[in-house]
Amino acid sequence: MERRRAPAAPPRYGRRRFWDALYQREGAETREWLGGLSRFLPQLEPELRSGDRILVLGCGNSALSHDLHELGYTDVTSIDFSPACIAAMRARYACCPGLHWAVMDIRALAFPDASFDVVLEKGTLDVLMVDETDPWDVSPQAAASMRRVLAEVSRVLRPGGCFISITFAQPHFRKPHYAQEAFGWSLRHATCGDGDAGAFHYFLYTMRKGQPLDPHDVALGRRLHQPRQPPAPLPPPAPPDDDEDYLLAIQL
Fold first, then answer.
1. pLDDT tens, position by position, 211-244
2. Within 13 Å of residue 209, how many CA atoms lie on the same side as its CB?
3. SS3 content of the chain, % helix, strand, coil (to 5)
4. How many whole angstroms separate alpha carbon 169 and alpha carbon 204?
5. With left for phi above 0 and alpha for psi between -120 and 50, is residue 181 left, alpha or beta?
6. Which architecture characterizes domain 37-224 according to CATH?
7. Sign of the alpha-carbon dihedral angle for 34, 128, 79, 170
8. Given this model, what pLDDT does residue 139 score?
9. pLDDT, tens digit (0-9, with 9 covering 90-100), for 92-150
């Protein structure tokens, strides 16, 4: 079976005009990053309740919001910073009155505090990292953008609500961003994907507002803000042993 790889993420993915041009071409034709809802439903469904008010960040032209609606989650608000995207999605799903659409920047959510029971994103936060060349050493700009979005998510979540992030970012890269005490939530993750060893896996992170972080995650989050130490210099080469017969060691 062909192995799935993470989608390429050139820097243009962080630019609004790229997405506007894409959605003007594609309209609301479904495009799924990281797969459709069925791939994550076993991990996602236990976190949801039928009456939840759900916010989907960076909805794009994914069918995720509509699929949630069809499963009985009938109060779903979807935002994207592309007007072309929102216009296309609003027209396509006009028959679903429980689906709400808005043009909005995820870094500045225009909702009151504690507005939602669930905030959900699938691949949207990965766009904040497209310019990063070293995932072990994220730039201050990318870290600040991530923190700004997560602070907004925490603000609009009600006490007891949850933030669910679906991404291909592995825990040692993504958990430090989520494990910040200032957000006031707990953190856990699950692995999604095919069971065979060669398959590409995705990760579903769940942050529950009002529950404490594990001490290990607290320490992980604090390290994000510490300056990275330069690698230790290599020790000098050992002096040659004058008693060694180098001619005998040569492999002819």
1. 999 999 999 999 887 766 555 566 666 665 555 4
2. 23
3. 35, 20, 45
4. 10
5. alpha
6. 3-Layer(aba) Sandwich (3.40)
7. positive
8. 87
9. 999 998 999 999 999 999 999 999 999 999 989 988 887 777 777 888 888 999 999 99
Closest C-alpha to 180, from 141, 142, 204, 154: 154
Grade residue 16 by pLDDT with cuts at 50, 70 and 90. low
Dihedral, CA of residue 46, residue 50, residue 53 and residue 57, to nearest 10: 50
Residue extents of the structural domains in the chain: 37-224
CA angle 124, 221, 110 (to 5 degrees): 40
Cβ atoms of 68 and 54 closer than 8 Å: yes
Quickly tell me which residue has 């060694």 as its tokens.
Answer: 244
Q: In one letter, which amino acid is 52?
A: D
The SS3 call for residue 160 is strand
Distance of alpha carbon 207 from alpha carbon 204, whole angstroms: 10
Higher-pLDDT residue of 189 and 232 is 189
Q: How many residues does the chain have?
A: 252
Do 163 and 209 contact (CB within 8 A), yes or no? yes
pLDDT, one tens digit per residue, over 45-80 is 999 998 999 999 999 888 999 999 999 999 999 999
- pLDDT for 137 equals 83
Question: What tokens were used for 222?
Answer: 């604090």
Neighbouring-strand partners of residue 202: 192
Structure tokens of 209?
Answer: 């507002």
Give me the helix-helix angle, 16-26 and 83-92, nearest 10°.
30
Distance CA 20, CA 123 (A): 18
